[in-house]
Every structure is written in structure tokens, then in C-alpha cells.
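TL;DR need C-alpha cells for one chain.
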Amino acid sequence: MDLLLYPAYVLDPSGVGSPHPPGGGDLMEFCERVGGVVWWVVWAWMAVVIAASTCVAMMGTFHLFALLGVGSGVWIDEEWPEFMDEPWKADSVNDIWGKRYHQVSPAPSTISQSHVPSLRKWILTIEMLRDIFNLWSRPFESLPRPLYILTIFLASALFHTIIYYPMTKQLIISPYLIFYLSQGIGCILERAFYKITGRKVGGWCGRVWMWVWVMGTGSGMVEEYYRIGWVGMMRGTLVLNGLSPAEGLGRWLGIAPDLAIGK
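>> reply
TL;DR here they are.
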């Protein structure tokens, strides 16, 4: 994220990508201030930055725990299944959410017998959230399948609204509801397509469809992340601690904006 957003920071030091509080800004306003850029290209790039950063952060954290767990000799590598299955290769909405995105539900159950207190606490927290999720879904199992799918994604929307509040200090309700419920609708549409045609969504056409649907329905969520300055805040953490490779590269090239954190 640091490197991918740095060009936006150079072009507009006080807007999106800025690590300086309060940071943030509207993507359309950014395009107007910079000039000569196509808004949908900018938006698509910003969406990719969010998606890539999320995957890298989650996979990096999981692999760090796996390294410590296996390296300590407490577990063997088979007890740490792959956290994600290359979600960028998904060729349908059902594929990305049902198979390729994070497998946080099954993974902790194989490693919950930890002798490391802090790690055990983290694992048990994940298991508790999984159990709550299962309890939520159980009363709706008798519903028609399309409605049942929607309740699962509704639970995911509410879950993300809550867990991101400590970081964003805002309840981002509408963007999450629109995005996650849309993913449920996408799954339902693909199942309807299979029932009508006898063919599953897949291949390159399915991949294009998946990306267009996921990124299109996530536009509000992406814009909200940049508007409230949450993305810039994460860059700011790196800059404040001298861990930003983009800042170092920018100064070496002589293109870094002459601003100081907090000023």
C-alpha cells in the first residue's frame, strides 16, 4: 500500500494517500485537482490497492503465526492449512467467497490447543467469532437457499462494521451493507444461471464478471476508506516509525513533498 499510494501522495500531498492527519479526501476531487486523469482508472487503481493490501496483510499475519508455531516445534506444518487460495484467480463470485478467500473458520480449529497464551487467546477469539457466526446462521437454515445466503452476507456486513470501528472510529454501515449483500446477490445470480443454462460461471468470462461485480459493488466502501483517511493513517504509521520504503525512495529521487507529519 505504501508504494502503490505514493504517486497519489506526490500529486496531491493533502489528499488521498497522505500520511498527514487528518488525511483522506474524495476520489473525484482528487481527479479534479490533479487534472488529466480518468476518474474510473484512478478509482480502479485505488480499489486494487485496498484489495491487494488486505490480502497481503492477512496472509502475512497468518504466515507469521505459522512460522512461529512450526518453528517452536509445538505444531507441524500440516496443522496450518493455507489461509487463502489465490483469490485473484477466482472465476466467479461463488468461487472467491466460497473457496479462495480466507479460510479463517476451519483453520483455527486445528491449532486451538496452543501452549502460548497470547496466541491461544487470539485463536480462541477467532473461534468464538466463528461460533457466533454459526449461531446467527442456524435459525435461518430452513429459509429458501437465496434468503439463507443473504443472511450469511448480512452477518458478514455487521461483523466488519464492528471490527473496523476501533480503527476507523466511525460506523461504516451503508457501504458494508451494500457490498456484502451484493456479494450474496451475485452468488444467487450465478446459481440461477446454472439452473437455467446447466453451465457454471467460470473461465475468463467468469473472471471478468467476478472482478466487475466485486469492484463495482465495493465502490462505496473503497471511497469511504479514502474519505475518512483510514488508508493514509496506515501509511502514516509507517512514516512515523521510519519504515516507509516509499518515503525513502521519494527523497532519494527528490520527489518527496516537503511536509512533516502532524504539520
